[in-house]
Write a structure and sequence with these properties.
The chain has about 170 residues and is of the alpha+beta class. Helices cover about 30% and strands about 25% of the residues. The chain contains four helices and seven strands. Strands 1-2-3-4-5-7-6 form a seven-stranded mixed β-sheet, with helices on both faces.
Length: about 170
């Protein structure tokens, strides 16, 4: 059900992203409201083999899993990261409107944990907008701990502060 995204998945990926954009707007969250993420971003993720899809008779969820250091995470304010060293980053995680509440997000996070363990990292990092209460609730439910505030590099909407979270993962 969860697999690497293919170029042929792009319309389904964009549909999921558009559902998330609409939900964020309805929740008055100023995240993903200025043309990001877009087709080019997702095609780049596919090219880099970092975009995964939850496919159950169509794309129901998406997430980007990157093992590369994120420079936006180098400086954290009002706190500290739990770990030092290598980590997995989750970016661009979203679930389609019709799949909300049926466990797709939980399965994407479980997949990310397994992916991190298989790639020998100690933790997973993620960030979200301070008003994105839905995502914060999911992160707490999965076990992420708020570590502080980061500022996104090369983000153009003027509101680049994000709450930063980390999850320590064990080696099973």
């Amino acid at each position: 059900m969860i697999r690497l995204a293919k170029v042929t998945d792009i319309e389904g990926i964009l549909a999921v992203a558009n559902d998330a954009i609409a939900n964020l707007k309805a929740d008055n969250v100023n995240q993903w409201q200025n043309g990001y993420p877009n087709r080019e971003v997702f095609l780049n993720d596919i090219k880099n083999q970092t975009l995964f899809v939850y496919d159950d008779n169509g794309i129901q969820g998406i997430c980007n899993l990157s093992l590369e250091r994120d420079p936006s995470y180098d400086i954290i304010e009002n706190g500290a990261w739990i770990t030092n060293g290598n980590y997995l980053v989750i970016h661009r995680i979203a679930v389609s409107k019709k799949a909300i509440g049926i466990g797709v997000a939980k399965q994407l996070f479980e997949f990310a944990i397994d992916y991190g363990q298989n790639n020998n990292v100690r933790s997973i990092r993620i960030d979200t907008h301070r008003d994105n209460k839905r995502m914060m609730g999911i992160l707490r439910k999965v076990g992420f701990i708020k570590c502080g505030i980061i500022h996104l590099i090369n983000y153009n909407d003027g509101d680049n502060s994000r709450d930063a979270y980390e999850l320590l993962i064990d080696k099973r």
